[in-house]
Every structure is written in structure tokens, then in C-alpha cells.
């Protein structure tokens, strides 16, 4: 019916914004809604943010056509649709507003759409609450005071979450490659994917199916969870999308991040709840290249006391993933490191970074110091 209804909804909108000024066919609305409901209700590991963002963006595009808006105004309106979808699903109007602007580019924000995006996020959140929708808000209790020792632990956590984010990106990409080898025909693809998920469910658990809300709640309550849980959640998600599932990628990554944070805290004897909350936002920050929006999301969902820790972890996770991401249509607006050469303006999905040693940099200075020490010892 509609090819654009498959896969991650957010990535389809990003691609439309960059390629056709946000022009999205109206038939995406019923097709995406039906495909996502079917995928989620039958156990597919998908989320809600992507579909809501895509449907919101499609409605915005339709509205722009009816009012005969130009390409520039349609583009702005569609970006507002992304922000509204994020805000209405997660109950985070400010983070939603920034997410819609930050997710389009790696390393840049469209300030010209800042005010409309904020209006869209706040309005969507307000309307959702008026309709009786409730959201996850977990104000954290006592968090360890800011100190050098605890900040160092958060830095290590950020590195760990960055590795988890990079691993998630590669697992999702690998799942697609596996599926491409066996894909033959749409209905058959769905049957194959369903059989794989059934087999994995029999081997492990039903916990990894669906939105992952229960797993996320358990992680944020400090319940001990298997160390491999976050990996399984991503594998289930990868198989769902690879064989034709439709939905969003944000919720599975949030769930995986919370599970990874719980594991990290448990291994190091730290507070599981605190690091589950930090992981909740950090893995998505690295995978989606949205550290600012995720830092704000942490404050909106878990309270202001988590702000410095979430911000540090999100930025480190963002840097750790390099020039890759879960949204292939995202455009590269800036390099994450001056020691890396990558095409500015190119798509993340087609990025081919070249790593090299740069003179007069901190890394180069460190290498020179190490060489001098080695020569003296010799």
C-alpha cells in the first residue's frame, strides 16, 4: 500500500525534509497507523515516537498543501510535526521541541524553526494531557552529590553507553543485511520474521516483545535484571524491523539504555536507579546524535538533580558513536573530531570517515610525550 510506512517513521520524515522540502503523501497516515498497530499488537519490538512523528509530519504536509504553503513553510511545519510527535508520546515538550530540530543534522540545529517547534511541542503535550494521557515521570530521590570521584564514574558510564549505542547501531544494520539475504516477497518476509521472533521468545522471554515499557519500569525501580537484557532488546528490535515491521526506534533504544544503565550500576556497586535513568537518555543520545534533546529529556522526566550527570554522559555517548547513527537520512553538518575527515552535508548512512593524526592537537601532544618517555627509557 505505502512503502514509506515501513521502518522507522522518524527517518522517513528526515529524508523527506532534506530531499523534497517535507512533502509527504497523505496516504502515509492510515498506512503507518495500521502497520504500527499490527506490528506492536503482534509482539513486534517497536516504539511509538516514530509513528506519531511521521503521522504528525504527514498531517502537517497535508495542511501545507491545503493552504498552498511554499516549500520553506511546508518544511518548517513538517519539522514541527516531529517535535509534536515526540512531545506527545514521551510527555516532554521542551525535549520534543529540541529533538525535532537536532535530529535532522549531526552537529547543527535549525534555529529558524526554534519558536514554531516549541509551540508545537508544548501544544501537543497540553492537548495530550487534556485527553487524559499520563506519562512516565520518575523524580529521583537522593543522588550522590557532585564530586570528582562520582563525575569520573559518570564519564566511564558515558563511555559504556556510547559503546552500547554504537553496538545498537551495528546490530540494527546487521539485522537488515541478514534479512536482505532471505527476503523474497512481502507476506513471506513477515512470516519469516514472525517465526524468528517466536523462536527467540521461546529461548528467552516475552519481556523483549512490544514497547518494552515493563522492562523500562523495572530498570527504573532498581530491580535486578539479566546482564544481557539490553542486547536482547536490540536484537528483537533489529529482527522486527529487518523483516518488514513498522514502528519507532526511540522506545526500544530508551528501554535498552535503561537496562544497560541498571547493569552498569549493579556491576560497579552503584545506585541502579540513577544509572538506569542516565542510560535511559544516553544510549539514545549516541544512537540518534541528539545529546542536547536527551539531556533536557532527563530533566523533564527525572528532575533537575540529574542534569549535570545526564549532560556529561549524553555528550560522551554522542562522541563515542562517531559518524554513524540509527537514522541514515540524517545529514552531517559538522565533524565530531578534527582528526576525522568526513563529507560535510552527506548522509550518515553513507558516511565513510577517514581517521588520521592531526598535528598540534591534544592527541598529537600526548603521542609525542609518550614517544619521548619511551626514548628516555631506551
Give structural attributes.
378 residues; two-stranded parallel ribbon; mainly alpha; Clc chloride channel
Helix content: 55-70%
CATH topology (level 3) name of the largest domain: Clc chloride channel
Shape: globular
Top-tier CATH class of the largest domain: Mainly Alpha
Spatial order of the strands forming the largest sheet: 1-3
Run of helices and strands: EHHHHHEHHHHHEHHHHEEEH
What is the CATH-assigned architecture of the largest domain?
Orthogonal Bundle
How many H/I helical runs? Answer: 15
Q: Give the mean pLDDT.
A: 89
Question: Residue ranges: pLDDT <50 for 5 or more in a row?
Answer: none
Major sheet size, sense and barrel closure: 2 strands, parallel
What is the fourth-level CATH superfamily of the largest domain?
Answer: Clc chloride channel
What is the CA-based Rg, rounded? 21 Å
Q: How would you briefly describe this protein structure?
A:
It contains 15 helices and six strands. With 378 residues, it is mainly alpha-helical.
Describe this structure in words.
By secondary structure, the protein is mainly alpha-helical. It has two domains: 3-130, no CATH class; 148-320, Clc chloride channel (Orthogonal Bundle). Helix content is 64%, strand content 3%. The chain has 15 helices and six strands. The strands form three sheets. It has a two-stranded parallel ribbon with strand order 1-3. A two-stranded parallel sheet has the order 2-4. Strands 5-6 form a two-stranded antiparallel sheet. Helix 5 runs antiparallel to helix 13 (291-302). The termini are far apart. The model has no long low-confidence stretch (mean pLDDT 89).
Amino acid at each position: 500500500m505505502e512503502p514509506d510506512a515501513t521502518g522507522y517513521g522518524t527517518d522517513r520524515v528526515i529524508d523527506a525534509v532534506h530531499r523534497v522540502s517535507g512533502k509527504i503523501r497523505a496516504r502515509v497516515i492510515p498506512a503507518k497507523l495500521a502497520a504500527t498497530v499490527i506490528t506492536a499488537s503482534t509482539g513486534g519490538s517497536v516504539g511509538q515516537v516514530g509513528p506519531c512523528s511521521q503521522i504528525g509530519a504527514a498531517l502537517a504536509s497535508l495542511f501545507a498543501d491545503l493552504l498552498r504553503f511554499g516549500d520553506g513553510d511546508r518544511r518548517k511545519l513538517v519539522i514541527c510535526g516531529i517535535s509534536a510527535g515526540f512531545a506527545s508520546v514521551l510527555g516532554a515538550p521542551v525535549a520534543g521541541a529540541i529533538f525535532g530540530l537536532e535530529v535532522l543534522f549531526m552537529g547543527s540545529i535549525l534555529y529558524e524553526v526554534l519558536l514554531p517547534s516549541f509551540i508545537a511541542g508544548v501544544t501537543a503535550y497540553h492537548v495530550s494531557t487534556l485527553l487524559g494521557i499520563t506519562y512516565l515521570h520518575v523524580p529521583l530521590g537522593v543522588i550522590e552529590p557532585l564530586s570528582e570521584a562520582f563525575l569520573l564514574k559518570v564519564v566511564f558510564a558515558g563511555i559504556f553507553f556510547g559503546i552500547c549505542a554504537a553496538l545498537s547501531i551495528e546490530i540494527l544494520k546487521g539485522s537488515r543485511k541478514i534479512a536482505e539475504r532471505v527476503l523474497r516477497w512481502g507476506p513471506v518476509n513477515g512470516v519469516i520474521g514472525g517465526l524468528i521472533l517466536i523462536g527467540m521468545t521461546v529461548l528467552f522471554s516475552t519481556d523483549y516483545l512490544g514497547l518494552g515499557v515493563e522492562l523500562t519500569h523495572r530498570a527504573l525501580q532498581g530491580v535486578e535484571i539479566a546482564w544481557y537484557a539490553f542486547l536482547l532488546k536490540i536484537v528483537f528490535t533489529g529482527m522486527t524491523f529487518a523483516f518488514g515491521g513498522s514502528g519507532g526506534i526511540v522506545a526500544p533504544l530508551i528501554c535498552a539504555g535503561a537496562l544497560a544503565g541498571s547493569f552498569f550500576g549493579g556491576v560497579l556497586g552503584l545506585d541502579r536507579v540513577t544509572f538506569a535513568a542516565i542510560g535511559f537518555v544516553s544510549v539514545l543520545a549516541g544512537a540518534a546524535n541528539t545529546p542536547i534533546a536527551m539531556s533536557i529529556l532527563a530533566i523533564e522526566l527525572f528532575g533537575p538533580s540529574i542534569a549535570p550527570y545526564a549532560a556529561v554522559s549524553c555528550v560522551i555517548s554522542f562522541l563515542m558513536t562517531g559518524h554513524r547513527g540509527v537514522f541514515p537520512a540524517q545529514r552531517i553538518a559538522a565533524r565530531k573530531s578534527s582528526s576525522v575527515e568526513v563529507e560535510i552535508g552527506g548522509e550518515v548512512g553513507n558516511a565513510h570517515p577517514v581517521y588520521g593524526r592531526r598535528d598540534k592537537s591534544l592527541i598529537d601532544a600526548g603521542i609525542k610525550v609518550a614517544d619521548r618517555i619511551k626514548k628516555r627509557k631506551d
